[in-house]
């Protein structure tokens, strides 16, 4: 299997501080990765490299077979789907849900004046249907609930038929029902052999959907462990990652974690 992402000894340094510190990591085609770690660990920084929006200070990053720095990122970016709050803030609040997804086919966050192809509209409707948004096609993006907004963004990210899908905290801010609904939908996507390779950033093991295969644990910019979920997601590793004693349990195809009581 070819590598979708390959980071070799990558550091990102700002104001003399390494936000990501000598990270080597590879993601093979078809794998579904979770990046897990505490606030400020460097998760979004890693995702920003994977999306080609951030270049390493040192080390090399190869995305979809192209080396960052040696490729026109404007050719690379349409091959990568992204959903996260940074992008959501750039989406016009007055556009409808259908328009929001459809504009992705043309590589834009705005602009409804284009002549959209019927086939693109059919695709946009199909992705929105898959994310449970069919009832809301004509709603304005700015009026959606947090959960509806997240699901619209994922449909939008899939619109360009990406080879790599990046999800930055897709379940953040959702209530229990919203989270579980999203986890089920992500599980279906992760289990689809035709779906792109995926990397999802999260703070919570409860948000790991069935079908995700690998996890990278990061703390203070350094990778603690990376590999298949059942091998890496242990109580000892998660305790080290979050800096307090934690018990991780597997319940069927889901995960939970809780802190030990203070003595
Ligand atoms: N442009 C920047 N200049 C300086 N420091 C930055 C910059 N961008 C991020 N940081 C810092 O780098 C560290 C890693 O940030 P990053 O957003 O990658 O963490 P994260 O793991 O995604 O955190 P969170 O879970 O809180 O979203 C943080 O301490 C953050 O304050």
UniProtKB/TrEMBL annotation:
Family annotation (SMART domains): AAA
This protein's record includes keyword Cell membrane: no
Domain of life: Bacteria
Domain ABC transporter: 5-245
Example of a GO cellular component annotation carried by this entry: membrane
GO molecular function terms noted in the UniProt entry: ATP binding; ATP hydrolysis activity; transmembrane transporter activity
Keyword vocabulary terms for this entry: ATP-binding, Nucleotide-binding, Transport
Pfam families to which the protein is assigned, alphabetical: ABC_tran
Protein name: ATP-binding cassette domain-containing protein
Organism the protein comes from: Streptomyces alkaliphilus
């Amino acid at each position: 299997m070819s590598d979708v992402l390959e980071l070799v000894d990558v550091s990102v340094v700002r104001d003399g501080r390494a936000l990501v510190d000598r990270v080597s990591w590879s993601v093979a085609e078809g794998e579904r990765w979770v990046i897990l770690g505490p606030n400020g660990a460097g998760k979004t920084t890693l995702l920003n490299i994977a999306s080609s929006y951030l270049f390493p200070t040192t080390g090399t990053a190869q995305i979809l077979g192209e080396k960052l720095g040696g490729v026109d990122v404007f050719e690379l970016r349409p091959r990568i789907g992204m959903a996260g709050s940074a992008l959501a803030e750039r989406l016009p609040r007055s556009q409808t849900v259908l328009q929001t997804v459809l504009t992705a086919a043309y590589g834009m966050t705005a602009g409804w004046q284009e002549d959209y192809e019927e086939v693109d509209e059919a695709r946009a409707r199909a992705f929105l249907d898959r994310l449970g948004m069919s009832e809301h096609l004509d709603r304005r993006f700015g009026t959606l609930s947090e959960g509806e907004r997240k699901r619209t963004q994922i449909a939008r990210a899939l619109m360009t038929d990406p080879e790599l899908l990046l999800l930055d905290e897709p379940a953040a801010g959702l209530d229990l029902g919203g989270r579980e609904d999203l986890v089920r939908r992500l599980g279906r996507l992760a289990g689809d052999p035709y779906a792109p390779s995926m990397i999802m950033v999260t703070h919570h093991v409860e948000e790991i959907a069935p079908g995700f295969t690998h996890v990278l644990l990061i703390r203070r910019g350094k990778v603690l462990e990376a590999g298949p979920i059942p091998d890496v997601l242990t109580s000892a590793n998660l305790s080290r990652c979050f800096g307090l004693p934690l018990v991780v349990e597997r319940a069927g195809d889901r995960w939970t974690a809780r802190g030990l009581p203070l003595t």
